[in-house]
Amino acid sequence: MDSFWSVLGGAFALVFALDPDLLEIIGLSMRVTLTAVLFACLIGLPLGAAVGAFRFPGRTLLAVILNALMGLPPVVVGLVVYLLLSASGPLGPLRLLYTPGAMIIAQMIIVMPIVAALTRQVVEDIDREYAEQFASLGVGALDRLLSLLWDARYSLLTVTLAGFGRAVAEVGAVLIVGGNINHVTRVMTTTIALETSKGNLQLALALGVILLLIAFSVNACVMALRASAVRAAYA
Amino acid sequence: MNRRFFAAILAAALIGSATVQSASGEDRFIVVQSTTSTQNSGLFDEILPEFQEKSGIEVRVVAVGTGQAIRNAANGDGDVLLVHSKPSEEKFVADGLGVSRADVMYNDFVIVGPDADPAGIAGGRDVIAALKAIAKGAAPFASRGDDSGTHKAELRLWKAADIDAGAESGSWYRETGSGMGATLNTGIGMDAYIMTDRATWIAFGNKGSHQILVEGDPRMFNQYGVILVSPKIHPHVKAEMAQTFIDWLLSREGQQAIAGYKVDGQQLFFPNANDGSS
């Protein structure tokens, strides 16, 4: 094997020689991950906020379950989604197996509990400060939920980024339900797994570096947006 | 203000789902359940564009171990099965899950091992003698252990050598439970002997000090077969397009494409569709 440093050097050389196939793979990675995170947030944010803000029977149990589901093994999620979407499975007629749609569903299931569990904690903390005010103003349940989410928006941005991080690095589930089909369901992580299995460690590592750079860019963009929003709020 | 914020999120979600919808739709494709050796060796990347250009049919390859490929195909998650474990393939057809089976091509298995060669098997042609020497010296041997075609072939050879390698699992016999490439990476990392198909080995990029030690034994012949998944059991199977692909693979043109694929000047697969025995 080449030395670690020569592999790393070669990796950076490849980063700056972006070819169309690589761009296609990066594009699909982003489309799948961002869509999955979006849907995970649409469910996870209100769900987490509701568990954090409202008192109801079974609330603690639900919170524990959400926390536990943060550790969902992606391969198990992939297997369950495969069995559901398989032609012999209950959702087989949708013909979603081996499409980006299947990958989005799997990643959404993995990311949603992370978003919900972290949102619950954030909202619960804020709600403690506002509970009396809400009560004295007689604010309705929906408005209370939306106000809490809005007030916690900067913390929830980080929650979203945690979900993004998990989704963008995920390989086990998308490999099973996507099938790593060239030009159809091949994303960054499955390409890295494929190149590793071909013994092309240098190329695999180079792709890893690119993935890291993309994740860094997305985080930087979100943080920049947040900073300008904060400035606008105080201007 | 916050209502507008949530309305914006909802709008973004709708746009997101719309782009996902537009991704599917196109229907001129078939799914082939196949094995890692055909994909990792680069064969499909070489021959599929030729077929697609001629027929307008896109071939989507899902590359997993033979065992998993057969199970996926049995579930109806593929139109064509292209694997290498003749007994399992014949059972697949006998069970009515596949229409018929045809020979496509062959290559062979080889035993690779470290330069040091602790069991002293280098240069041998008799694979059974080599396995006996490895077991006798308790030299590390990395097995796929994943129910793949290569794994099944390896188990048949251990059986022929009258050695219960599974009983030594965890000591010198190490089952990685992974694909060929991952097993090679692992085996090379621990200076183990590994049985691999020649195509994957030639195309493999991380050989270390390992080289081919045992080759040429007729018992290491590795036949690939192709099967159309039964449209009777799974009505959604695109039988017509799938049959077009199979016909092409077995045609003079397809066979020439397979023979023409070389890595480092070496031919990886040898077409034999017309040798009878299909």
TrEMBL record, chain A:
Family per record: Belongs to the binding-protein-dependent transport system permease family.
SUPFAM superfamilies listed in its UniProt record: MetI-like
Compartments in which it is found: Cell membrane
Name of the protein in its database record: Sulfate transport system permease protein CysW
Organism: Roseibium album
Gene name in the database record: cysW_1
One GO location term (cellular component): plasma membrane
Classification via PROSITE patterns: ABC_TM1
Keywords: Membrane, Transmembrane, Transmembrane helix, Transport
Transmembrane parts of this sequence: 33-54, 61-85, 97-118, 154-181, 201-225
Gene Ontology biological-process entries: transmembrane transport
Domain ABC transmembrane type-1: 26-222
PANTHER family: PERMEASE COMPONENT OF TUNGSTATE ABC TRANSPORTER (PTHR43632:SF1)
Domain of life, source organism: Bacteria
Lineage, uppermost ranks: Bacteria, Pseudomonadati, Pseudomonadota, Alphaproteobacteria, Hyphomicrobiales
Topology versus the membrane: Multi-pass membrane protein
Location, primary (coarse class): membrane
NCBIfam families to which the protein is assigned, alphabetical: ABC_perm1
UniProtKB/TrEMBL annotation, chain B:
Coiled coil regions in record: none
Signal peptide (from-to): 1-22
Protein name in UniProt: ABC-type thiamine transport system, periplasmic component
PBP domain segment(s): 22-253
InterPro entries the record matches: ABC-Tungstate_binding, PBP_domain
Any Pfam family hit: PBP_like_2
Top-level taxon of origin: Bacteria
Native source species: Roseibium album
Keywords: Signal
